[in-house]
Write a structure and sequence with these properties.
The protein is 40% helix and 10% strand. The protein is an alpha+beta fold. Its cofactor is [2Fe-2S] cluster; [4Fe-4S] cluster; [3Fe-4S] cluster.
């Protein structure tokens, strides 16, 4: 079968903007997108630039934007893409600087990985956790990494991240999932975990994720970075880090439901912005519009029937979590 591949091309030495070029190729059954690209380079256009290495979905080098979704070219079937989309369109990963054709600059990606300190904090005073030869012991029953250690650093999650699209400073799903891996590691000292979590409260940290779920959808290794970010948020609150607006939104929501049995939209903004007068004035017009739309209950209205049962659920949850 003869098939047309539409590939984004860009040569910084000759082109001002990226453009599309079409290549027709005779293909057989079982061909992957990466194999097709290699054939196009070898048989039709030797100038085509792409990045690949293992060809086995291990190294992550061949991550690309294929038919509108971030995928590993080496594990993407041409036949299945054609059946699903009726075409094959290949572009470089978005949200990363373009070098040439399908090759992007991964330097910003690695800078964010390094920013979360992706290694264990050294322990200055040896404890019983050190083995006889000086290693830190990690027993299987002492940890749960939730598969975040399966990340191959392909960058697909960053390319698909809607938060990163509007804020290039956002640490991104891969780096935050890596941070979650070390927060969950029992070999990491408690004070070091506190330092890690404190650093992630800043702008472009864990509270800037919009939970769009795109990183989960495109991850080729089922790392589920968004779930890792949620675990970091929960851990932050457990460690008493509740000053960020995102954290106040969660704790305020819980407090209102526990107190009134429902969400009180009139009080919720105050729970989030606190005593920041500038932020209060910023949300005030929204509150006025909500009031006229009938979306705001009385700030100090009565509680719902059965409130004691609701509070009993919260009390049971606290006891189960070990808070007494």
């Amino acid at each position: 079968m003869r098939l047309t591949f539409t590939i984004q091309r860009f040569n910084p030495e000759t082109d001002q903007h990226p453009h599309q070029e079409e290549y027709r190729l005779d293909i057989g059954r079982g061909l992957t997108v990466l194999e097709a690209l290699i054939r196009i380079k070898n048989e039709l256009d030797g100038r085509l630039a792409l990045r690949y290495s293992c060809r086995s979905a291990i190294c992550g080098s061949c991550a690309m934007h294929i038919n509108g979704t971030e995928k590993l070219a080496c594990r993407t079937s041409v036949r299945k893409e054609l059946e699903r989309h009726g075409k094959i369109t290949i572009q470089p990963l978005p949200n990363l600087p373009l070098i040439k054709d399908l090759v992007v600059d991964m330097a910003p990606f690695w800078e964010k990985i390094r920013a979360v300190t992706p290694w264990l904090t050294p322990i200055t005073h040896p404890t019983k956790r050190y083995g006889p030869s000086g290693q830190l012991r990690l027993l299987p029953e002492t940890y749960q990494f939730h598969n975040v250690d399966a990340c191959i650093m392909c960058g697909a999650c960053v390319a698909a991240c809607t938060s990163h699209e509007v804020s290039k400073g956002f640490l991104g799903p891969a780096a935050l999932a890596k941070a979650a891996r070390f927060v969950a590691d029992p070999r990491e000292p408690a004070d070091a975990k506190q330092v890690r979590l404190s650093a992630l409260q800043e702008a472009d940290g864990i509270w800037d994720c919009t939970r769009c779920n795109m990183c989960v959808q495109v991850c080729p290794k089922d790392v589920q970075p968004m779930e890792a970010i949620i675990r970091l948020r929960r851990s932050s609150i457990r460690h008493g880090l509740t000053d960020a607006e995102g954290a106040r939104h969660i704790t305020g929501f819980v407090d209102l439901v526990r107190q009134e049995g429902r969400l009180n939209e009139a009080l919720m903004p105050l729970k989030v912005v606190g005593t920041n007068l500038q932020r209060i004035l910023h949300v005030l017009p929204l509150g006025v519009r909500m009031f006229f739309k009938g979306k705001v209950p009385l700030p100090f209205g009565h509680t719902i029937p059965g409130i004691e049962q609701v509070r009993a659920i919260f009390s049971a949850a606290r006891r189960r979590a070990g808070h007494g």
